[in-house]
Design brief:
Helices cover about 35% and strands about 25% of the residues. With about 300 residues, the protein is α/β, with parallel strands linked by helices. It folds into two domains: about 230 residues, Alpha-Beta Complex (Spore Coat Polysaccharide Biosynthesis Protein SpsA, Chain A), CATH 3.90.550; about 60 residues, no CATH class. The strands form three sheets. Strands 3-2-1-4-11 form a five-stranded mixed β-sheet, sandwiched between helices. The chain is globular and about 55 Å long. The chain starts with a strand and ends with a helix.
Length: about 300
C-alpha cells in the first residue's frame, strides 16, 4: 500500500520541522508493505522553509504556492501532485502544527485493515496543553434545520486520554488527520474551492456519504496541537467591532455569510434557511460580545 501525507504550510518552519521529524521516526515502524511519502505544500513561504527542509530532510516533495492558495487550494494542489507523481492508494491530510501519539501512523493505517478502502478515517484531536482537552472527537448527529453538529465530546472538554479508544462512526471530520482513498478524491474532484479556508473538509465528508462512502474516527489515532499558541484558536480571540463586521464578507473567515449559505443549501434542510440565517447571526453576535467583554481591559 502506498500512503502520502499532504501538509500545507505558510511560514511556520519550526512547527513543520518538528512534525516531519516525528513522521520520519514513525515511518520506520510501519509494516514493510506500506510505503510512506510526504508532500509539503509551501504556500508563499518567505521564512526559508524550502531551504531548511532541503537541508534537514531527504525524500521530501515540495509544491510551491503563490501565497494566495489558502487551505483548500493548497490541499488540492498537494493531492494532484501526489496522484500524478507518487500514485498513492491513500492520502493523509495533516496540519503543520501537530504532534503525534507515538503509534499514530501505525494506528491510522491499521484502520484500513478493519474498515476497508471505501471510507474516510479520521483522527482524535487533542490539546497538547494540560489538562488534555478534546478539540475533535467525531460527530454522531447533525441537526438538519440549523446545521448544529453534535460531537461525541464537547469542544475543549477535559478528558483522560487513555479512556478514549476504538473506531466510531462520524458524519464529518476536520481536515487534520483525515485518511482518504485516492479513488474517492478523484470521484469527488477533490475539495471544493468554493470554500477556500473553512468548510471544505466537512463538505467533502458529506459529499462522500452521499456517494456511498462511510466516515469514521479512530480514537486510537491521536493527534495533539498547542491550541493556544497556533492559529487553531485565532478565530476565538478578541476582535474589534469593525473586524467582526468585515468577517461576514471576508472569504477567508468562518463567518463569511455567502459560503455558510452555500454550505447549508447543499447539505441541510432548505426549508429551514430563514431559521438558519437568524440563528447564524444570533450565535455570531453572542460569541463576539462574550469574547469582547471577556478580554476587555
Amino acid at each position: 500500500m502506498k500512503l502520502t501525507a499532504i501538509i500545507p504550510t505558510h511560514n511556520r518552519i519550526q512547527f513543520l520541522s518538528r512534525l516531519i521529524e516525528q513522521l520520519e521516526i514513525q515511518k520506520s515502524n510501519l509494516p514493510k508493505n506500506i510505503s510512506f511519502n510526504i508532500v509539503i505544500v509551501a504556500d508563499g513561504c518567505i521564512d526559508g522553509t524550502e531551504a531548511i527542509l532541503n537541508e534537514k530532510f531527504s525524500l521530501l516533495y515540495i509544491v510551491r504556492g503563490n501565497g494566495n492558495w489558502w487551505y483548500t487550494k493548497s490541499m488540492n494542489e498537494g493531492f494532484k501532485y501526489a496522484i500524478k507523481n507518487l500514485q498513492p492508494d491513500f492520502v493523509l491530510t495533516l496540519n503543520d502544527d501537530l504532534e503525534f501519539d507515538r503509534n499514530y501512523l501505525k494506528e491510522i493505517t491499521n484502520s484500513i485493515d478493519v474498515l476497508g478502502n471505501s471510507c474516510i478515517i479520521g483522527s482524535l484531536s487533542l490539546t497538547k496543553e494540560l489538562p488534555t482537552r478534546v478539540t475533535s472527537s467525531g460527530v454522531y448527529r447533525i441537526n438538519r434545520c440549523i446545521g448544529k453538529l453534535f460531537h461525541y465530546y464537547k469542544f475543549l472538554q477535559p478528558i483522560k486520554v487513555e479512556e478514549l479508544t476504538g473506531i466510531h462512526k462520524s458524519l464529518v471530520l476536520p481536515g487534520r488527520g483525515m485518511l482518504i482513498p485516492k479513488q474517492l478524491l478523484l470521484k469527488l474532484n477533490f475539495f471544493d474551492e468554493k470554500f477556500p479556508q473553512y468548510h471544505s473538509d466537512i463538505d467533502f465528508c458529506l459529499r462522500a456519504i452521499k456517494n456511498g462512502y462511510s466516515v469514521y474516527v479512530n480514537w486510537d489515532a491521536k493527534l495533539f496541537s498547542y491550541y493556544l499558541k497556533t492559529s487553531n484558536s485565532s478565530s476565538y480571540k478578541k476582535k474589534t467591532l469593525l473586524e467582526f463586521l468585515k468577517s461576514f464578507v471576508d472569504p477567508y473567515s468562518r463567518n463569511h455569510i455567502k459560503q455558510n449559505l452555500v454550505f447549508f443549501w447543499r447539505h441541510q434542510n432548505k426549508i429551514c434557511v430563514p431559521l438558519f440565517i437568524m440563528i447564524f447571526f444570533i450565535t455570531r453576535i453572542r460569541s463576539f460580545l462574550i469574547h469582547y467583554f471577556k478580554y476587555a481591559a
